[in-house]
Amino acid sequence: MTGSGGELRAFCRNAGGWCGSSDGNLQVGWLRKDINATNQHVLDFEFDPIFLDSWVKVEACVDGKYHEESDENGAMKWRPMSALYRIKKGNRSTEMRRNGQAGYEFHRQDPQREYLSQPFGPDSPTWPSQLNLEPLEFAKALALQLSNKEFRDNFIGIEDISAPSIDIIDVSPYAGTLVLFDSVVVPHEVVEVKGGQRLAVAGWFHEDQQAFPDWYGT
Predict the structure, then answer these.
(1) How many other C-beta atoms lie within 10 A of the C-beta of residue 97?
(2) pTM (2 decimals)?
(3) Overall average pLDDT of the 173-191 stretch
(4) Beta strand 61-62 with 65-66: parallel, antiparallel or unpaired?
(5) Which of 16, 44, 159, 212 has the greatest count of CB atoms below 10 A from its CB?
(6) Which of 57-66, 78-87, 115-124, 203-212 shows the lowest mean pLDDT across its residues?
(7) Contact yes or no for 186/13 (Cβ under 8 A)
């Protein structure tokens, strides 16, 4: 019933590409871009989805040395780390075989990836020491990993609904209504029910979990 509350409220953005997941990697944020700017007055925003690659192949370092092979004590040659990327048409994906001493391997994929951070992990200097981060604190920690100030200033966490240019869509709870959306990238809530009774059935489609890479544990 109109006016009785219980609407499904979704907070939507104007995405600059597909969103939600990429090759099994979840989206963890947005990178805001100003578009349609005239005389320095921004008329609109567009948001590039930012994904987290959790299987960046990084050469392990022990006592300041990088191993070419696993040693006799069972030390592993490779360790998995994370990196942030976006998908951008027309760009060559970033692949870094060696950067200074450390060896990195980013995946080449189609569509191609543009990596926006160096590999990082829980022991990286820029990562907070606490184990359980609230969503907004997690977003701040991710922003710190980005490679330049412009990216860091324009990064928005996946659950941040305070940023500009959000479209709020309310779906009234009429009987027989079916709503399909990506619950990862669309923050949502149910508005307070003020009259009557609201009944709903919710379900999720889950993507295949990524297999461990063949180099993991070696």
Answers:
(1) 8
(2) 0.79
(3) 90
(4) antiparallel
(5) 16
(6) 57-66
(7) no
